[in-house]
Protein backbone atom coordinates (compact mmCIF):
# COMPACT_ATOMS: atom_id res chain seq x y z
CA UNK A 1 0.00 0.00 0.00
CA UNK A 2 1.33 3.42 -0.89
CA UNK A 3 1.92 5.92 1.89
CA UNK A 4 -0.53 8.31 0.19
CA UNK A 5 -3.29 5.77 0.98
CA UNK A 6 -2.51 5.70 4.71
CA UNK A 7 -3.76 8.13 7.34
CA UNK A 8 -0.52 8.14 9.35
CA UNK A 9 3.06 7.47 8.28
CA UNK A 10 6.42 8.01 9.98
CA UNK A 11 9.77 9.00 8.51
CA UNK A 12 12.96 8.26 10.40
CA UNK A 13 16.64 8.61 9.65
CA UNK A 14 19.85 9.95 11.15
CA UNK A 15 20.27 13.63 11.88
CA UNK A 16 21.01 15.75 8.78
CA UNK A 17 19.68 13.06 6.42
CA UNK A 18 16.99 15.35 5.00
CA UNK A 19 13.94 14.27 7.02
CA UNK A 20 12.48 17.76 7.52
CA UNK A 21 12.68 18.73 3.85
CA UNK A 22 11.18 15.40 2.80
CA UNK A 23 8.30 15.67 5.28
CA UNK A 24 7.51 19.22 4.12
CA UNK A 25 7.46 18.11 0.51
CA UNK A 26 5.26 15.09 1.24
CA UNK A 27 2.90 17.10 3.46
CA UNK A 28 2.33 19.62 0.69
CA UNK A 29 1.95 16.89 -1.92
CA UNK A 30 -0.37 14.68 0.15
CA UNK A 31 -2.23 17.42 1.99
CA UNK A 32 -0.82 16.56 5.38
CA UNK A 33 0.20 17.90 8.77
CA UNK A 34 3.49 17.16 10.52
CA UNK A 35 4.25 15.91 14.01
CA UNK A 36 7.87 16.46 14.97
CA UNK A 37 9.58 13.76 17.04
CA UNK A 38 12.57 15.80 18.14
CA UNK A 39 13.66 16.32 21.73
CA UNK A 40 15.22 19.72 20.93
CA UNK A 41 12.93 21.25 18.30
CA UNK A 42 10.12 20.94 20.84
CA UNK A 43 11.63 23.93 22.67
CA UNK A 44 10.91 27.57 21.90
CA UNK A 45 13.96 29.80 21.32
CA UNK A 46 16.22 26.85 20.49
CA UNK A 47 16.03 27.45 16.76
CA UNK A 48 19.50 27.14 15.26
CA UNK A 49 20.80 24.40 17.56
CA UNK A 50 17.74 22.24 16.83
CA UNK A 51 17.89 22.84 13.05
CA UNK A 52 14.12 23.17 13.13
CA UNK A 53 12.26 24.34 10.00
CA UNK A 54 12.34 28.08 9.30
CA UNK A 55 9.40 30.35 10.16
CA UNK A 56 8.48 30.42 6.48
CA UNK A 57 8.51 26.61 6.26
CA UNK A 58 6.43 26.29 9.41
CA UNK A 59 3.80 28.51 7.79
CA UNK A 60 3.56 26.21 4.76
CA UNK A 61 2.34 23.20 6.75
CA UNK A 62 0.65 22.83 10.13
CA UNK A 63 3.21 21.48 12.62
CA UNK A 64 2.87 19.87 16.05
CA UNK A 65 5.69 19.12 18.46
CA UNK A 66 7.68 22.25 17.59
CA UNK A 67 7.93 25.29 19.90
CA UNK A 68 5.71 23.59 22.47
CA UNK A 69 7.80 24.21 25.62
CA UNK A 70 10.34 26.62 27.06
CA UNK A 71 13.91 25.32 27.48
CA UNK A 72 13.56 25.05 31.26
CA UNK A 73 10.44 22.86 31.02
CA UNK A 74 10.53 19.07 31.01
CA UNK A 75 9.84 17.05 27.86
CA UNK A 76 8.96 13.39 28.25
CA UNK A 77 6.89 10.62 26.69
CA UNK A 78 3.81 12.01 28.46
CA UNK A 79 4.10 15.37 26.69
CA UNK A 80 4.87 13.71 23.36
CA UNK A 81 1.77 11.53 23.56
CA UNK A 82 -0.32 14.66 24.14
CA UNK A 83 1.13 16.27 21.02
CA UNK A 84 0.42 13.07 19.10
CA UNK A 85 -3.21 13.00 20.22
CA UNK A 86 -3.67 16.64 19.21
CA UNK A 87 -2.01 16.12 15.83
CA UNK A 88 -4.03 12.99 15.10
CA UNK A 89 -7.31 14.64 16.08
CA UNK A 90 -6.53 17.72 13.97
CA UNK A 91 -5.59 15.60 10.94
CA UNK A 92 -8.77 13.53 11.24
CA UNK A 93 -11.00 16.60 11.70
CA UNK A 94 -9.54 18.32 8.63
CA UNK A 95 -9.25 15.21 6.46
CA UNK A 96 -5.46 15.34 6.28
CA UNK A 97 -2.61 12.84 6.48
CA UNK A 98 -0.42 12.84 9.56
CA UNK A 99 3.30 12.63 8.86
CA UNK A 100 5.46 11.89 11.91
CA UNK A 101 9.09 12.82 11.44
CA UNK A 102 12.19 13.25 13.60
CA UNK A 103 15.35 11.80 15.01
CA UNK A 104 14.18 10.97 18.54
CA UNK A 105 12.85 7.52 17.63
CA UNK A 106 12.48 6.48 21.27
CA UNK A 107 9.19 8.40 21.29
CA UNK A 108 8.10 6.77 18.06
CA UNK A 109 8.77 3.37 19.61
CA UNK A 110 6.38 4.31 22.39
CA UNK A 111 3.62 4.69 19.79
CA UNK A 112 4.19 1.27 18.27
CA UNK A 113 4.98 -0.61 21.49
CA UNK A 114 2.93 1.43 23.94
CA UNK A 115 3.62 2.40 27.53
CA UNK A 116 2.31 1.02 30.79
CA UNK A 117 -0.46 2.86 32.58
CA UNK A 118 1.24 4.73 35.39
CA UNK A 119 -0.26 5.14 38.87
CA UNK A 120 -1.41 8.51 40.14
CA UNK A 121 1.54 10.26 41.76
CA UNK A 122 0.60 12.45 44.71
CA UNK A 123 2.43 15.72 45.42
CA UNK A 124 3.95 14.23 48.58
CA UNK A 125 5.44 11.37 46.57
CA UNK A 126 6.80 13.75 43.92
CA UNK A 127 8.48 15.82 46.63
CA UNK A 128 10.02 12.73 48.23
CA UNK A 129 11.42 11.54 44.91
CA UNK A 130 12.61 15.04 43.96
CA UNK A 131 14.64 15.20 47.16
CA UNK A 132 16.21 11.83 46.44
CA UNK A 133 16.94 12.86 42.83
CA UNK A 134 19.12 15.74 43.97
CA UNK A 135 21.95 13.23 43.91
CA UNK A 136 21.48 11.04 40.85
CA UNK A 137 23.97 8.39 41.92
CA UNK A 138 22.32 8.07 45.34
CA UNK A 139 18.92 7.77 43.64
CA UNK A 140 20.22 5.07 41.28
CA UNK A 141 21.82 3.14 44.16
CA UNK A 142 18.53 3.29 46.06
CA UNK A 143 16.70 1.96 43.00
CA UNK A 144 19.25 -0.81 42.64
CA UNK A 145 18.67 -1.72 46.27
CA UNK A 146 14.91 -2.11 45.89
CA UNK A 147 14.89 -3.52 42.34
CA UNK A 148 18.22 -4.70 40.95
CA UNK A 149 16.48 -6.28 37.96
CA UNK A 150 15.05 -2.98 36.76
CA UNK A 151 18.19 -1.01 37.63
CA UNK A 152 20.38 -3.31 35.53
CA UNK A 153 18.28 -2.46 32.48
CA UNK A 154 18.91 1.29 32.60
CA UNK A 155 21.95 3.54 32.82
CA UNK A 156 22.87 5.20 36.10
CA UNK A 157 22.67 8.53 34.21
CA UNK A 158 19.11 7.98 32.95
CA UNK A 159 17.44 10.59 35.11
CA UNK A 160 13.98 10.24 33.55
CA UNK A 161 13.64 6.46 34.06
CA UNK A 162 15.15 6.53 37.53
CA UNK A 163 12.74 9.25 38.62
CA UNK A 164 9.69 7.45 37.17
CA UNK A 165 10.75 4.13 38.70
CA UNK A 166 11.08 5.69 42.16
CA UNK A 167 7.72 7.44 41.83
CA UNK A 168 6.10 4.11 41.00
CA UNK A 169 7.80 2.44 43.95
CA UNK A 170 6.78 5.06 46.51
CA UNK A 171 3.26 5.38 45.07
CA UNK A 172 2.51 1.65 44.97
CA UNK A 173 5.06 0.11 47.37
CA UNK A 174 5.90 -2.23 44.47
CA UNK A 175 9.29 -2.65 42.74
CA UNK A 176 8.99 -1.16 39.23
CA UNK A 177 9.87 -4.42 37.45
CA UNK A 178 6.94 -6.12 39.21
CA UNK A 179 4.65 -3.16 38.52
CA UNK A 180 5.43 -3.19 34.78
CA UNK A 181 4.93 -6.97 34.66
CA UNK A 182 1.47 -6.53 36.16
CA UNK A 183 0.73 -3.53 33.91
CA UNK A 184 2.12 -4.39 30.45
CA UNK A 185 2.28 -1.69 27.77
CA UNK A 186 -0.51 -1.35 25.24
CA UNK A 187 0.41 -0.29 21.67
CA UNK A 188 -1.06 3.03 20.54
CA UNK A 189 -0.29 2.78 16.80
CA UNK A 190 0.83 -0.86 16.37
CA UNK A 191 0.61 -0.88 12.56
CA UNK A 192 2.31 2.45 11.93
CA UNK A 193 4.18 2.37 8.58
CA UNK A 194 7.75 3.57 9.15
CA UNK A 195 9.98 4.70 6.29
CA UNK A 196 13.72 5.01 6.89
CA UNK A 197 15.99 7.35 4.96
CA UNK A 198 19.08 5.30 4.14
CA UNK A 199 22.22 7.30 3.36
CA UNK A 200 25.88 6.37 2.92
CA UNK A 201 28.04 7.18 5.93
CA UNK A 202 30.47 9.43 4.07
CA UNK A 203 27.66 11.34 2.37
CA UNK A 204 26.02 11.85 5.76
CA UNK A 205 29.27 13.07 7.29
CA UNK A 206 29.55 15.70 4.56
CA UNK A 207 25.96 16.81 5.17
CA UNK A 208 26.68 17.08 8.90
CA UNK A 209 29.80 19.18 8.27
CA UNK A 210 27.90 21.52 5.97
CA UNK A 211 25.01 21.85 8.39
CA UNK A 212 27.36 22.56 11.29
CA UNK A 213 29.12 25.27 9.29
CA UNK A 214 25.72 26.75 8.35
CA UNK A 215 24.48 26.74 11.96
CA UNK A 216 27.56 28.61 13.16
CA UNK A 217 27.21 31.12 10.34
CA UNK A 218 23.54 31.65 11.28
CA UNK A 219 24.55 32.63 14.82
CA UNK A 220 24.63 29.45 16.90
CA UNK A 221 27.12 30.92 19.38
CA UNK A 222 24.96 33.99 20.00
CA UNK A 223 21.85 31.81 20.40
CA UNK A 224 23.53 29.61 23.03
CA UNK A 225 24.90 32.66 24.89
CA UNK A 226 21.36 34.07 24.99
CA UNK A 227 19.91 30.77 26.21
CA UNK A 228 22.53 30.48 28.94
CA UNK A 229 21.88 34.01 30.16
CA UNK A 230 18.11 33.49 30.25
CA UNK A 231 17.86 29.87 31.47
CA UNK A 232 21.33 29.08 32.95
CA UNK A 233 23.01 25.76 32.15
CA UNK A 234 20.77 23.74 34.45
CA UNK A 235 17.95 22.65 32.10
CA UNK A 236 18.33 19.27 30.39
CA UNK A 237 17.98 20.95 27.00
CA UNK A 238 21.23 22.85 27.61
CA UNK A 239 23.16 19.59 27.43
CA UNK A 240 22.18 18.87 23.83
CA UNK A 241 24.74 18.45 21.06
CA UNK A 242 25.52 21.84 19.56
CA UNK A 243 24.70 23.62 22.80
CA UNK A 244 27.09 21.89 25.19
CA UNK A 245 30.03 22.32 22.78
CA UNK A 246 29.34 26.04 22.41
CA UNK A 247 29.22 26.39 26.19
CA UNK A 248 32.62 24.71 26.38
CA UNK A 249 33.87 27.06 23.66
CA UNK A 250 32.63 30.02 25.70
CA UNK A 251 34.57 28.57 28.64
CA UNK A 252 37.72 28.64 26.53
CA UNK A 253 37.99 24.86 26.09
CA UNK A 254 37.98 24.99 22.29
CA UNK A 255 39.12 27.35 19.57
CA UNK A 256 36.58 28.39 16.92
CA UNK A 257 37.83 25.74 14.48
CA UNK A 258 37.90 23.08 17.17
CA UNK A 259 34.32 23.98 18.08
CA UNK A 260 33.13 23.29 14.54
CA UNK A 261 34.97 19.96 14.40
CA UNK A 262 33.69 18.94 17.84
CA UNK A 263 30.04 19.60 16.96
CA UNK A 264 30.37 17.73 13.66
CA UNK A 265 32.09 14.76 15.31
CA UNK A 266 29.54 14.46 18.12
CA UNK A 267 26.67 14.84 15.64
CA UNK A 268 28.11 12.03 13.51
CA UNK A 269 28.30 9.82 16.59
CA UNK A 270 24.68 10.63 17.38
CA UNK A 271 23.71 9.74 13.81
CA UNK A 272 25.37 6.34 14.17
CA UNK A 273 23.42 5.66 17.38
CA UNK A 274 20.19 6.74 15.69
CA UNK A 275 20.69 4.30 12.80
CA UNK A 276 21.44 1.47 15.24
CA UNK A 277 18.34 2.24 17.30
CA UNK A 278 16.04 2.54 14.30
CA UNK A 279 17.13 -0.76 12.80
CA UNK A 280 17.13 -2.71 16.05
CA UNK A 281 14.07 -1.24 17.79
CA UNK A 282 11.64 -0.24 15.04
CA UNK A 283 9.70 -2.25 12.47
CA UNK A 284 10.85 -0.53 9.27
CA UNK A 285 8.44 -0.97 6.37
CA UNK A 286 10.77 0.49 3.75
CA UNK A 287 14.36 1.72 3.77
CA UNK A 288 15.70 3.70 0.86
CA UNK A 289 16.99 6.98 -0.50
CA UNK A 290 15.11 10.27 -0.30
CA UNK A 291 14.07 9.87 -3.93
CA UNK A 292 12.84 6.31 -3.41
CA UNK A 293 10.68 7.36 -0.47
CA UNK A 294 9.29 10.24 -2.53
CA UNK A 295 8.48 7.85 -5.36
CA UNK A 296 6.57 5.28 -3.30
CA UNK A 297 4.48 8.08 -1.79
CA UNK A 298 3.23 9.36 -5.15
Rounded mean pLDDT is 94
C-alpha termini separation: 11 Å
Helix content: 40-55%
Based on secondary structure, the structural category is: alpha/beta
CATH architectural group of the largest domain: 3-Layer(aba) Sandwich
Largest beta sheet: what is the strand line-up? 3-2-4-1-5-6
Per CATH, what is the topology of the largest domain? Rossmann fold
- Tally of distinct domains: 3
Overall geometry? globular
In CATH, the homologous superfamily of the largest domain goes by the name P-loop containing nucleotide triphosphate hydrolases
Strand content: 5-15%
The main β sheet shows up as:
6 strands, parallel
Secondary-structure element series: EHEHEHEHHHHHHEHHHHEH
Low-confidence stretches: none
CATH class of the largest domain: Alpha Beta
- Strand segment count: 6
Number of alpha- plus pi-helical segments: 14
Architecture overview:
The mean pLDDT is 94. The longest helix has 26 residues. Strand 2, helix 2 and strand 3 form a beta-alpha-beta unit. The protein is α/β, with parallel strands linked by helices and 298 residues long. It has a 6-stranded parallel beta sheet with strand order 3-2-4-1-5-6, sandwiched between helices. It folds into 3 domains: 146 residues, Rossmann fold (3-Layer(aba) Sandwich); 60 residues, Histone, subunit A, CATH 1.10.20; 75 residues, Helix Hairpins (Orthogonal Bundle), CATH 1.10.287.890. It has 14 helices and 6 strands.
Amino acid sequence: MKSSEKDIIAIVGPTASGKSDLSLELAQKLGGVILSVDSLAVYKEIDIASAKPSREELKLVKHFGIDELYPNEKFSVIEFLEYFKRAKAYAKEHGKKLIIVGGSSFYLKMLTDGISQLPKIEAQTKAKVAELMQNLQVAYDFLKGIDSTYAKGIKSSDRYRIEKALEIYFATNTPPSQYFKANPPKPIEPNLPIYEIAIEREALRERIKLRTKKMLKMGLIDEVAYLEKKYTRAPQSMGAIGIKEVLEYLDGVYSRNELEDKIATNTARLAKRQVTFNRSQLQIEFSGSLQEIKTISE
